[in-house]
Specification:
Number of domains: 2
Helix content: 25-40%
CATH topology of the largest domain: D-Maltodextrin-Binding Protein, domain 2
Distance between the termini: 74 Å
Order of helices and strands: HHEEEHEHEHEEEEHEHEHEEHH
Length: 264
């Protein structure tokens, strides 16, 4: 009799647990990414501080090529956009954990990224370049010239990967802006960052007037990453095509027209 009562109690607890689990199931379970984003009414975009792609104006608003196009895409979906600064080294974990809905931040379409996420068609040409003090530029025109330098690189970035591929001595920092600061302060001899950022943030008239870019280390393309299998990929690719004229205007605003990849 005691055994029978114990079995009944165990079954009752199991049924209660199952019912509670069902009632507490995630509200987005079974939804596509597009449905999930539309239902919550906001597209959460993972970024870092990366001029001219994503950076803040004097009022604290996120602007830049990627930020402006992300706003247009969110508007086309009928939702708001929210920008969240992330640790770039943890970008895929942030994406899979649904703290963000996409990574849209001058992101290089590396094998690592495309294996871990579903990505849009490429929209920009780019390369990784060496940053050095302008006074030293003539001494560091090729990758071979730079072998003895100490480099600052963004953790988890394409720049870090290329620097390692070239056998450079590296220290990893939070983002590309931090890498520039390391060179400016003299705590690193050089940095590896994206060409588009180098064009916008170094040289005369910038905050890094004493720095310049020299050796190009590779050729690469930018894309936007979504969770694996996300239907937002097709939505964005279609948006790229149907709104290409508007995207060209945004590129012109930030002086990036030459790097833009035509969308067809």
């Amino acid at each position: 009799m005691k055994k029978l009562i114990a079995v009944v109690i165990a079954l009752t607890m199991l049924l209660c647990f199952a019912a509670c689990s069902k009632n507490n199931a995630p509200a987005d379970e079974g939804k596509t990414d597009l449905e999930y984003v539309k239902d919550k009414g906001v597209l959460v975009v993972g970024i870092t501080d990366f001029e001219p792609m994503d950076y803040q104006d004097k009022n604290g608003e996120w602007i830049g090529f990627d930020a402006d196009v992300a706003k247009l895409f969110a508007e086309s979906l009928g939702v708001k956009v929210e920008f969240v600064e992330i640790d770039w080294d943890n970008k895929i974990m942030e994406l899979d954990g649904k703290t963000i809905d996409c990574i849209w931040n001058g992101m290089t379409l590396t094998d690592e990224v495309t294996a871990a996420a579903s990505c849009s068609n490429p929209y920009f040409n780019n390369k990784q370049v060496v940053i050095v003090p302008a006074k030293n530029a003539d001494s560091y025109k090729t990758a071979a010239d730079c072998k003895e330098l100490n480099f600052a690189v963004e953790a988890g970035s394409a720049g870090e990967a290329v620097a390692n591929d070239n056998g450079f001595k590296v220290i990893s920092v939070k983002d590309q802006a931090s890498a520039l600061m390391e060179v400016k302060s003299g705590t690193a001899d050089a940095a590896v960052i994206d060409l588009l950022m180098a064009m916008a943030m170094t040289g005369e008239g910038t905050s890094y007037a004493d720095l310049t870019y020299t050796a190009g280390l590779n050729d690469e393309k930018y894309g936007v990453a979504f969770r694996t299998g996300s239907d937002l990929v097709d939505s964005l690719n279609a948006f790229f095509v149907s709104n290409y004229a508007d995207i060209e205007k945004v590129a012109e605003t930030y002086g990036l027209t030459d790097a833009l990849i035509e969308q067809k």
